[in-house]
Amino acid sequence: MIKIKFCGISHIEDAIVASNYADLIGVVTDPVSPRFVKPEFIDIVKNFVNKPVVNVKVKGKINDIVNESKADYVQIHRVLDMEEIEDILSYNKKFILYVPSSEKYYSYFKTIVNKTNHLILIDSEKKGEKVNLEVSKIWIKEYDKVGIGGGITLNNIEEFLSLNPYWIDISSGIEKYKSKKDHDKMIRIVEKVKEWKSIL
Ligand SMILES: O=C(O)c1ccccc1NCC(=O)[C@H](O)[C@H](O)COP(=O)(O)O
């Protein structure tokens, strides 16, 4: 089955529900986000869940992000420079590397694929916009660890699943309001992913 990351988790009860249904639990610890929580929240969440937790950060030094919590993965949600990509290779840590879904980032995408073995997240250039599905479709075929996020909802998830990504990333589409998850939407979206598998 296509793996699922539920992102933007900022309440313990949402983390517990997420851990029953998703493969990865994303926590945004960057103050730029309305879903921001302190990195310490990750360490608390880890006492309640049995799924890997991802620390999602936009800004900051890689070393600081790696060391600020007990997260199993670090998702750097920005385009890195070459020095940072080299730096990542020196850590014994799992990363999720964000690539904006625009043709102009194709060589960046290839650099990451060729240099690292980490999960890649193809996502919209700007938070809140829908990811470019045409670009994503091509890139998903080129590397087996590509996930897709950026505007997935209960109403459009089939468009994303049809690209056959390794994993999908959902946050705003499973919210009651910004930062609070809707448990019913979480469960229904997982059912859709399961149904999709049985169609194939
Ligand atoms: O959640 C945020 O507010 C956020 C802010 C800045 C960078 C990343 C952020 N979240 C990342 C995610 O929620 C997911 O990795 C992905 O973008 C899917 O999100 P959505 O389009 O809301 O489903």
From TrEMBL:
Domain N-(5'phosphoribosyl) anthranilate isomerase (PRAI), by residue range, is 5-191
Gene Ontology molecular function, alphabetical: phosphoribosylanthranilate isomerase activity
InterPro entries attached to this UniProt entry: Aldolase_TIM, PRAI_dom, RibuloseP-bd_barrel, TrpF_fam
Q: What class of enzyme is it?
A: isomerase
Which keywords label this protein?
Answer: Amino-acid biosynthesis, Aromatic amino acid biosynthesis, Isomerase, Tryptophan biosynthesis
Pathway per the UniProt entry: Amino-acid biosynthesis; L-tryptophan biosynthesis; L-tryptophan from chorismate: step 3/5
**What Pfam families does this protein's entry cite?**
PRAI
Reaction it catalyzes: N-(5-phospho-beta-D-ribosyl)anthranilate = 1-(2-carboxyphenylamino)-1-deoxy-D-ribulose 5-phosphate
Q: Is Amino-acid biosynthesis there in the keyword field?
A: yes
What does the record give as EC number?
Answer: 5.3.1.24
GO BP of this protein: L-tryptophan biosynthetic process
Q: Which HAMAP family does the entry mention?
A: PRAI (MF_00135)
Assigned protein family: Belongs to the TrpF family.
Recorded protein name is: N-(5'-phosphoribosyl)anthranilate isomerase
Taxonomic lineage of the native organism? Archaea, Thermoproteota, Thermoprotei, Sulfolobales, Sulfolobaceae
